[in-house]
């Protein structure tokens, strides 16, 4: 469109014409291309504010106004906050626990690593479930009731051991020594995977890079 100034000029005209959704589309791309462009951030905040005030849907209104606040004030840094408790984790299904692990994966650090493993997780009351677990493109992917023929390792885990590691009260080395986790094959991919998990920040950007 001819550069940042051309985009801003067009966005201002469209803003004055009340074309707020189109302005949001334009400026969203500009803010991601130039996060420090204060004029673009301020106009996008004004746009989200208009969209929020005109929106009847409470959820959408909150999203728009939160986005405007983020553009003007940034994201509050409260550090990592662990909201789950052992009781909450005990009530989660195994699929939920693996989703929880995926949420806490440090994607940028994991980007260059590809890991393929088979996990067998023992529930508290005895039953076992099999999962094909893969780390690829900075994401943790799992498939229930499947095994990978080319897996680097077959891992057997007690559910309690997985919960303790995810909650931060134990680590992979401790659980390996206690034999609550056993590995057939190379243990390095498993220890590396757990090293890539970290607590998530309480607040995170929703409209900025």
TrEMBL record:
MF annotations from Gene Ontology:
linear primary-alkylsulfatase activity; metal ion binding; protein dimerization activity
- Which SUPFAM superfamilies does the protein's record reference? Metallo-hydrolase/oxidoreductase, SCP-like
Query: In the UniProt record, does the keyword Hydrolase occur?
Result: yes
Q: Residue ranges of the Alkyl sulfatase dimerisation domain? A: 1-74
Q: What is this protein called?
A: Alkyl sulfatase C-terminal domain-containing protein
UniProt keyword annotations, A-Z = Hydrolase, Metal-binding, Zinc
Organism listed in the record: Nocardia yunnanensis
**Domain Alkyl sulfatase C-terminal: where?**
84-209
GO biological process terms, alphabetically, are: dodecyl sulfate metabolic process
Quote the InterPro entries the UniProt record gives: Alkyl/aryl-sulf_dimr_sf, Alkyl_sulf_C, Alkyl_sulf_dimr, Bact_Alkyl/Aryl-Sulfatase, RibonucZ/Hydroxyglut_hydro, SCP2_sterol-bd_dom_sf
- Which one Pfam family would you cite for this protein? Alkyl_sulf_dimr
Query: Which Gene3D superfamilies would you find in this protein's record?
Result: Alkyl sulfatase, dimerisation domain, SCP2 sterol-binding domain
